[in-house]
Write the structure tokens for this entry.
Amino acid sequence: MTTLLPNFLGGRWHSGPGAGTPLFDPVLGDELVRVDATGLDLATGFDFARNTGGAALRALTYRERGALLAAVGEVLQKHRDAYYAIATANSGTVKNDSAVDIDGGLYTLGVYAKLGATLGDRRHLIDGDAARLAKDPLFQSQHVLVPTRGLALFINAFNFPSWGLWEKAAPALLSGVPVVVKPATATAWLTQQMVQDVVDAGVLPPGALSVVCGSAAGLLDALQPFDVLSFTGSADTAAVIRSHPAVAQRSVRVNIEADSLNSAWLLPGEAPGSEAFDLLAKEVAREMTVKSGQKCTAIRRVLVPQDMYGPMAEAISARLRKTTVGNPRNDSVRMGALVNRAQLAAVRDGLAHLLAQAETLHDGATHALVDADPAVACCFGPTLLGARDPDAADRVHDCEVFGPVATLLPYRDSAHALQLIRRGQGSLVASVAGSDPAALAAAALELADSHGRVHVLSPDVAALHTGHGNVMPQSLHGGPGRAGGGEELGGARALNFYHRRSAVQASTAVLAGL
Ligand code: NAP
């Protein structure tokens, strides 16, 4: 039997008593490791995190906690090669795609480590200015932000076992809040290994970081009112979480990042081959293929003026044709595998669902797999669909195929494009491409109410822009409506989730002591 990964809770390692659930190599089909979260004393473990980990973190200043994040980053950096090996084996990703997860996590840690230094030697934050409560300025109200005295539970999705942990843990630990992470079972190995390395290095106070690998059963039951819960995953699981008594009755603060029908919009007036046209085509092809399209931020709907439907179909397809698909260990391969057989089946089903209302513009089945057995490997060629009547194609606006699949949609005018984009009912990110700064700015504002982030592609930033799907810690991540209604990152804004806001009403002399 393969290794059973131990859980770390209550300041010590526990191996589950059962045989565990196996994790597989999605390209070779081999079993890699096992996980088992049964038999854990969650109540005691969570108390240890809250009382021991939380107290130790809260005793530190933001600057000191920032230094802890930097120390965590140094530990992870030392083991980076091992993380790449785990990602290749368990996520089936090529090196560049593993980097989005592993180095993306390290970068995010670094940004929050620096933020800690700028917040300085204090243990709470002042929120806004004091406001007079009476004619006499002597009695005023001052809002403060203090770390919550609970723990932060992260229930994460399979696609970012590294970044998904650190993009949340960095602001939590910086805020003084201990972390318990439950990675998605399919790719739990990388998360577990990273936590193990950090624990072994002894750089964090006991109880500050714990990991539970396996089923989520019982985790929400163990939450208390001052805990916070951050969930990333499907809308179906999100609905279960929202209705759990921990959230519905005990008011556990919850942040949800769910699925999203992200768009890319080419503004009117761009000829085929113009810089903006090419920027969009390149971005769509990249977003479809990075991590085999298993990114919550990936472009799913591509909107172009009606007369650009044919030229854009050809431009994107030309790029997709060059994508070699197969075993990520082969240097000629650009796109690896989906995460497991279940995802492969889900992508096939989703594609069939969309095809009832769409045509195939580039068929992923034309990609012969390199160094991989099609009967075993969970590889899926990039597939571009098109819906000539986008108003009637309701499935395209509703069904997220979590793989290398996107649909091209022709629009009549900008009002029509916006109407179609809004049928996604709130998304994480939209890209808009064009060359007129005023038109791009106006489009960005039109998109802002329904998107957590708007990525603008113009020729002047062709070589500079950070990519539609790359989540930068400086920018907000999350989206309204269907995207879950959550907010993460956004620089210092991320700390709000882990702090409690309180209004202190007092004399000016007292407020001076805050
Ligand atoms: P999922 O099935 O919802 O699983 C997500 C997490 O929830 C996993 O850790 C899973 O554990 C856990 N879980 C399952 N049932 C649960 C329950 N009843 N109570 C509590 N936790 C439970 O989602 P997925 O298939 O892993 O992820 C793909 C989806 O995530 C896509 O739809 C994608 O759009 C979305 N996503 C969104 C973002 C974002 O930032 N918005 C980022 C990445 C992915 P097990 O693995 O052990 O079942």
